[in-house]
Every structure is written in C-alpha cells, then in structure tokens.
Amino acid sequence: MKKENISDAVIRRLPRYHRYLGDLIREGKLRISSAELSRIMNVTASQIRQDFNCFGGFGQQGYGYNVKYLYGKISELLGVSEGYRAVIVGAGNLGRAFTSTHMFERRGVNRLAMFDIDPAVIGTKIYDVPVYSVNELGDFCRKHNVHIGVLTVPKEAAYEITSTIIEAGVRGIWNFANMELKLDNPDVIVENIHLGDSLMTLCYEIKTANEKREKDEYRKTQNPLRIYGAP
Q: The dihedral of CA 166, 168, 169, 171: what is its sign?
C-alpha cells in the first residue's frame, strides 16, 4: 500500500496525526472527516487526504475516517508495535528527563538502560532505569539487541559513542549532542535534534509577529479615518 519516495514533510506529519487521533479516541470520537481533522490540526483537508493517499487512503467516500482504524494504521506505519528497544547514553539533566517520562513506552519503545562515566551514578537507578558504565555499552547492546541509541552526551564524545553502538548492531540514533552527526553508513538512521534551533525559531516567530503588529499600528496612525470605516 505504501508508495515510494514519500516526502519527509509527510512522514513528519504522521506523529502529529497519531497524537491528535489518540486525543480523539480518549474523547470517544468514532469517526471524523478530513475537514474536521483539518480544523483541529491546522492542515488543509486536501493536504490530509494527499498524505493518507500516500499509504492507501484509509477513508470512505461520504463517511470520512474511522478514528480507531486510522489511529491503528498510523501506529503501524510508525512502528509502535515493533517492540523497539532503546538505551540512553548520558545520565545528565537531559538523560534524566528522558527517564522521568512515559514518552518512550507510549510510543512503543522500551527503555532498557542508561550509561554514564560518573561512578556516583553507575550502579544506581534513575526513575527505575538502571545505570551502567559506558564501558559496558557495546556488550549490552549486542546482548539485548538494542535498536535505538539516545545520545545526551557532550558533542566531543558523540562519534566515539556512535561508533561503539553501531558496531554492536544499533541502527537508529536519536542525537541530542548539540552537533550534526553525519555518518557514511546507509544502514544507520540518524535523527539530529537541536533544541536551540527550535527555541530560535520561536524567537523568530515572536519577532515577526511583533513587527507586523507595530506596522499595523503605524498604518492606523497614518490613516486615522480607517478606524471608523471611512472610505
């Protein structure tokens, strides 16, 4: 059912569909039209239909989409039921934050362990996740068939850690090391996450909105009669 060469933009909208549909299920919603989903997600109905048509459609003419069925199909596309296993490398503030949330399990990913170099945390548990020495990382990944490595380490250590887990069979890297991790291995998928970029994007949007507001206010002062609807 899946078409070839699906754009990154479509793929990156799938988790949003999954999240909103999950909310609709909890609200008891049984079916929804592309127009209704459009209003909720701020994506055009045409775009929604095009996105779903990339994977076979999922809807019925005149009926719309069965919410539970659509949620299940998108869960399947996103690998929620594949039983992926992850380790977190780095037990600093960000790594600890990842252990304090159910984000992984709710998306079908099982956090097995954390790894660090600090003797003070090695051998302890952080929110019930055991912490091991980074020296055990490769053997652990091989033994437990780990699929995903979450990097919350300093950028200077990122490539060394990545090399270790790739040699151990890990094929997915979720990189928070504040650097662009580039690999020559086509079998390894890297998702580089830059939290600072997201913050700067927000700052840009605020700045742009403020500038637009200031321009609108200036136009009103230059054309005072427009306020009262004069021609």
A: negative
Token code pair at residue 23: 């909310």
Among candidate residues 125, 128, 130, the one with its CA nearest the CA of residue 87:
130
Please tell me the distance from the alpha carbon of residue 177 to that of residue 157, in angstroms, as a whole number: 8
23: Cα within 13 Å, side-chain hemisphere: 8
Q: What distance in Å separates the CA atoms of residue 231 and residue 219, rounded to the nearest whole number?
A: 15
Please provide the distance, in angstroms rounded to a whole number, between the alpha carbons at the two ends of the chain. 57
The rounded distance, in Å, linking the Cα atoms of 124 and 132 is 8
pLDDT value at 215 more than 90? no
pTM (whole model) above 0.85: no
Name residue, tokens 């239909």.
49
CA distance 115 to 89: 5
Does the pLDDT at position 227 exceed 60?
Answer: no
Contact 101, 128 (CB under 8 A): no
Distance CA 147, CA 166 (A): 10
Two tokens, residue 113: 């362990």
Which is nearest to 50 in space by CA: 114, 3, 88?
A: 3
pLDDT digits (tens, 9 = 90+) for 48-58: 989 998 888 78
Distance CA 142, CA 149 (A): 12
